[in-house]
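Kindly inspect both lines:
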Amino acid sequence: MLQSRTFWLIQGIGIVLFHLLALGVMIGSGQGFDHPLGMLWGIILLIHAGEIILAFIALKGMGVPPLTVVVKTLIFGFIWWLPRRLGVYQA
């Protein structure tokens, strides 16, 4: 399963849809981070921010630009850098 490109693509689509849903609900409700989904989104973003160091360690020597590591880790978390490290994705 961890070597399945389809598995990781589905995870990536899921997190992007979650980001869009949470942002839409936060803006639409006018509650921002006071909305339960907004709170969950904030927690996920904090967890992803905490993963940035792990991503740099995991991808060391693989030639991934630092800005790419930061942006993709904030959006996707480990579901982009772990498959890259495992060789599922080459770029």
User: Anything to note?
Assistant: The chain has a mean pLDDT of 93. Residues 5-85 form one domain. The radius of gyration is 14 Å. The chain has one domain: 5-85.
